[in-house]
Amino acid sequence: MDIDQIETFLAVATYGGFHRAAQALRLSQPAVSARIHLLEESLGAKLFVRSRAHVALSPAGRTLRPHAENLLRAVSVARQAVHEQQPASASGVLSIAAGLSISTYLLPDILKKYQSANPGVMVSVRSGNSMQVLKMVLDGEVDLGLARSLHHPEVETQSLRDDPLLFVGHPSLPATRKRRLKLQDVESLPLIFYDRGSSDWTLTNGLFRRAGLLPNVVLEVEGIETCKRMVLRRLGLAFLPQLAVTSELKSARLRAIQITDAEPLHRSLDVIRSRHKALGGAAQRFLNLLQSATDSEGVSKI
User: Which residues is 219 bridged to in the sheet?
Assistant: First the structure.
């Protein structure tokens, strides 16, 4: 029994098949099958029940799984302990998963500072929605995850700042000149929504639904940046993250409108880490910089 066999066993168990496990591990399917065969031989038991359409854990496999997970956690902690003994100037790797808008609007300036102070560290940034970020952290694929309002019993969550959704429009539009509107007045305005089914979409939709109103959605797009560009082109107004429109509000290219009879759409910008994985020096230094660069009022320190 070796670590590669244990990792392969857990991959097959997680993905429910040899082909998908091979893709995730970047191995050939015969290599995955060979590792599982050797592991089964060393244990003297079949770990999977195979059929044409499905691969499931056998009773022996179900017994092994929690022990295999604990073993990999112990290996990760041991590797990290050795890594921590290396000089601070040694090269290393920092892996981060972040929501797309966070990668676009928050990380570039922070990473510029980080790499200036840590030139020997290679940084890997992967993007995804909140659930994808959570999965990457839980699977140990990344050191830290950055997402919004994300909590799970297996991760430690730290809120960095509030990132509310602001109702914004082009300054030339009549609606934006009023600066303050009731939700009923907003209902009839041309609105742009984005990322149907996302937390932002759900929050915005819920605002109108709770008031018994039907928003006048004239355009739906896939992402925040696309939505912002449509608003800048005067195609409609939108609820956008404060983080995404800070620059445009400061330069008066967009204007925020306060909705007087509805609570602000609050959500937190969080950093998450696995409770079962020690945080390395490279990741800890990034976390320290991230904490100092964000505050409750925005990203004024960046």
Answer: 192
